[in-house]
Input
Amino acid sequence: LSGSAAAALASAAEAAPLLLAESAGSLGSSAVAGRSSAPGGRRLWAKARTTWLVVAVLGVFAVVYCSLSRRDGAAPSSGLQRLAAANAPLPLDGGEDAAEQAPPGFGFDGLQQLSEKVGEAPKSRATHVRELENRPRGDRRKYQYAVLANGLEVLNIQDSRTLRTAAAVAVTAGSFNDPVHLPGLAHFCEHMLFLGTKRYPEASGFDNFMSKHGGFDNAYTANEVTVYFGEVAQAAGEEEMKRLADFFRAPLFMHKFARKEVRAINSEHLKNIQNPDRRILETLNRLADPGSPVSRFHTGNLETLFNEPRRRGINPVTALKHYFKTHYCPSRMRVVTFSSQPLHEQLLGAEATFGTIPRGPEACQRKRETFESPKPFPKSRMGKWVVIEGTEPQPSLWIQWQCKDLTQAYRSQPLEYVFHVLSYDGIDSFSRMLQDSVGLASSVGMFEDMSSAGTSLYMVIKLTDLGREKVELVLDILYAYIATLVRDGVDMALYRSIAEVRRLEWDWNEPDGPADTAADFAERMTRMDPGHLLTGDMLLMHPGQHHAEYILSKLTPDNMNLALVDQGARHTGLLKDYKLQTLPHWGVKYGVSKLFTVMPGAAERWDKWLNSSNATWLRDRLRRTIADAEVLAVGTRFPKAPGPIKDVPKDLSLVNMHVKKFNASGVGDLFGPLPHRIEFGAVSPPAESKDPQVWYRSGWVTQSPKVTVQVMFRPLRPDDEPEARAIDEVRLGMYRKLLEEEIAPSMVDLTLTGVGYSIGVDPLSGLTFAFTGFAPVLPRLVATVLDQFNRFNGNLNLTRPDRFARISQEARQHLSSYTEMPAHYALMDRSILLESGSHSRKESLAALGNVTRQSAAASAGELLLARPLQFTALGMGNFGEEKAHQIIDRVASGIRLPHWLDVVDGRGKVQYIEKIVRPEGPVEVRALNPRDDDQNGVTVVTLLNGVATIESEVTYGLLGQILSTVAYNELRTARQLGYLVQAGYGLTSNVDYVSAIVQGEVLDADDMESAIEHVLTELMPKKLQSLTQEEFESYKDSMIQDLQEPPMSPYEEVSHFWYPVQYDGRCFHYREERMKYLKSPLVSRESLADAWADIVMPQQGLRRKIVIKYFVDKVPPRPSVEEARRSWVKQGVAEGSLALLADEHKQTVIFDRADAEMRRKIADKGGYFPKTINCRLRDATVEALALEPDRLPKIETSSTPAPASRAPGGGQHLGRRPL
Output
């Protein structure tokens, strides 16, 4: 993990824009503040250590990995979310608006010009230049470390295949460096650096530049480091470096922008308060010594960054400038560059841009400050029992142990061993005993918070209702297990086997993208010597017995704090005997006592167990303790420690690792030769199709000895078959979870050897399997998974009643609670209105009450296996065709029909496309914000275009890039309407759309819609009208480079080909078709303007507009046309669009909720979009491309007929705006 708990408590799906990824996890953090969220940070924990099983009845029960938050928050935020501002103005006093004049620099251009004059390559003045040779076997990148003349350390990374350029800067200062009287100052500095520099004074200039060139930028503030990073198209890389370097040479820190950013940080903190896990972690950190920064508030808000400083006579901007001068200097900076340029050229570029930054004052160049004193958790601050009022329905137990700083133990990684033995989830493990034998918990997870102040280890146990009542018994079982681990000592055979697995993973780890790689290494450089940068976080080089023994010795009752988290803590009386406290800045209600007071005698009992060497006596004591607690143990009576990992692959054959030579001719060839159909006979039941679709390709364009097999058994359905019912969807959701819990313990040891699998069941896609890993282990993996799958299906009573009751309760809690941001639920409502077969949480909750243990277990059989199924498979990677055929055949023939199942005759065909409702006109949902404690309104405005075509995806994809910037600059930067502002282009099934979303407190949902319409009808047309040819070409070039970017990993290769394989091989040339159209003269500034007018200001008919609005406290009456018109005018809607909006207002269908019933009402009037797959250019386009450029016609970008004409009353006033 990184040096903070933030690395372990982060979002499940933070990388994707909320507009497109309509789900997000909410595991929070204490130590990372940021500008926005993206995957990154240290990868050790994200790929191998901490997994959280998230119950989600309506989706695949997923393993949630963790990621660091970025520029938008002190806790993770989603995708492209940005900071919002509070409503009140924030006056700040005096001060200069510009930073010091930067000293003259030579500049990269100057170096190039000089080299041309003298006729030789410029030479670097850097020292300690060394190429890092200790690379993983599968890593084709090159790495070079150097120190610039001003003391700045640089890492250059060359990837000869990439068309992208990335850069990152890490500064060895973070939230722990905040002045005591100005909490959040480091985070404030991170924000302000993006708002203009001496050379580039425009506040949004950096963001706009990155967006225009198909890039993005981000930053985050952690405990002891702040990291800035960005990624752009290759052609803009040099300019990106100049702009980024100027952050650290001459930031303006202008007062007029400081007001905005303080308000934005305040809004960000209000969002963080909603994060359930973040609240808990902050409460536990509050127990630390007040003299340690661990105990303090780090995000900052309006009170700490403005109100309180003003009362003290402190100007935050003046303090900010002082903070920057004393913490931001080259000796405390680490720069990483990433591109296809040779290493020496990258080094010269870094010298020309970052090497000219002055060394800075002596105060900044001093040795890096550490925070080990005062100790945050001395003995006097341990042994605490805390009761916390939580926000989630499921109770949990948080256990904290304190250790010394283990940051420099990265070569032995003792936590890797300790976490493995404590959170192991195999048969008879501690975790399985809590879940299955005594029914006290549903999951066990671990993470650490590591910094120079020390290392806190956390175990989080999600409790059942019984576990909440028997917390002491949970701890009894835990300490009986820890006593066994201490008595038996460190299992060095296990430790070494973990090291073997880590080396295997390290050698063949799939690389991250440019920006993530740069940010990751920049952070590593702040805590590792250059020789270990490539190995330190992944390779377990020296298993350290003494380090592991030290950690185990610290897992004692007197070195432990406990927190019981319960949503009803105040109402159920859990807090009645405590002095009720409120966590400053967070509002968390909690009470603190001493552990030995709450559980008298328990600590002494556990100490006695820890010091016992008699295994038989200990087993007997635990058995008696369980019996005395009146809990019936089923199966495992004592937790078993894991043994060494067996059968780790060695001496892997690489014969088929690389694709065979082929003639490359287009962008599609970046992914290598196409898979080809292989002969495959008729598949035995359940797949009765006589024409199975089986595809295969040997080797990878990238480099990996792994193989992947993807399989689908898709039901044949008639076109007129009714959509899936809520009860069917919930039954399958419960089936997935029951199956997962039944087979997962048996699969743990096998999956530790470097293989993985997934099983999915869905009414549309049917039964799906995915297998991936090293070829020698894959046959065993397939056989084991299928055996377990058949065993589960063959016995409807295999799931114990108590397990079913627990999983049902967790599902019920999930469906009845709202812990995500309200925008998440608004986007779900949009999906429910459009996507056939989807259902609301209320509908699913009602259906859940009718699901029995047997009906859930039988659902896959009755709803899928009983029908005729079509078999589709893809095998790719490091195996020959014969071996691929054997494995795929094993899957095809290995599924047994349960004895209780009656197979039905059926007719129909594979339904490739999920049906999308086609609204006849505008639809609006007016509902309450589902979060009772949330004061944000939400508005989602979506304009449906129609069935997507190559032409529309290119055209609206370009428009989406422009819209994203225009909307953010207006709604977020200029008007500060909310924390979350996003806009862009997307697809749902085969239908494309443009959409915008705002979540905030400044305007109510009705006025937010008007503000969004201002962007759509006024600002976007103006932007397109003023768009220069140079700007237009930059947007095109960025999309071209995206299409030309080669795959970074086997995963990207499989994803590229699996999509067309699912459609019978019809879309293999999809990328080439997009490139052909994008490069044609048919794509122009004029065509973009026409397309925008078509979707936003149609000459005929109403827009297919879906609006979701969430209100606070109560839903107001819908405004009249006159009231709405006043709002439109006030918010700046284009005058020429007022008549259209008035017509739409009159004909909008209003709902008070989104569910299947409302969707049917829409479909009854408008029907559904055609289920067409458009993977080729339209005939009209092909014909047009054959014409001379001056004879090119206008090409329609949608294959869907225009909506019906508007009713009389204003349509004649609408025409296409002159652009």
Remarks:
- The longest helix spans residues 726-751.
- Residues 20 and 97 are 39 Å apart (CA to CA).
- The first strand starts at residue 33 and ends at 34.
- The chain has 39 helices and 30 strands.
